[in-house]
Amino acid sequence: MSDAPELYQKRAQRDANIAKEKKKNLLATKKINREKRRTMVSNARKYEKEYNELERQQIRFARIAKKNGTFYVPAEPKLLLVIRIRGINGLAPKVRKVLRLFRLLQINNGVFIKVNRATMNMLRVIEPYVTYGYPNLKTVKEMVYKRGYGKVHGQRIAITDNSVIDNCLGKDGIMCVEDLVHEIFTVGPNFKKASNFLWPFKLNNPTGGWVKKGNHFVEGGDYGNREEGINTLVRKMN
Asked: How far apart are CA 45 and CA 158, in angstroms?
């Protein structure tokens, strides 16, 4: 090596420095990924504990109310699942605009939205064209795991691993599917970002077909608020 020309020595030194830097970066990346995996596992356990405690709390309150001869009224739901059930025929401009705002561009598209006065007012405008209700944890999990696609640089990308989520929402503390499910289900502080990251779900027609799209759900039809009944519908469409 000492007899080699100076140019070869410089190249060899450069290659050695590059290899050393690559190894250093690789070790640093492995360490970061290892810490992220620990955080993900820890968060998943914490969320499971939180969900179980919430369920036990509701059962406990219901039992106390029954014992006292009263009724337990759960807190108002904060999350809605809205599914479009009708096409574009005879759409008024205002209805078309609201459907676009909700990103419900096709029949059987579904989105999660936060319950507030503004969204409820908009839902009234498009009610004959959608059905909606209060999804439970099982429904949110099934939809994200089975039909979850993320919006990455304007493209529809399947959520095949946690890196898809981490690259887009990691800065907001949402690094994996369990973080995403928790943020949606609890309507957390970053709900809007999490919801916008999820591409509108593409569901199938329900098993056995629709009953009557032109009638409200309470009249034996399909459109409108079906409250907890939305979970049964999603099982037929997922």
From this structure: 25
C-beta separation of 135 from 141 below 8 A = no
Residue type for position 9: Q
Give CA separation, 222 vs 65, 130, 158, 171, in Å: 33, 8, 30, 40
pLDDT tens digits for range 99-134: 999 999 999 999 999 999 999 999 999 999 999 999
Q: What is the pTM of this model?
A: 0.83
Please give the Cα distance from 127 to 203 (Å, whole number): 19
Residue owning tokens 């050393």:
20
Q: Tokens in use for 194?
A: 């999490």
Give the tokens for residue 193: 């970002």
d(CA 108, CA 53): 34
CA-closest candidate to residue 230, choices 114, 79, 117: 79
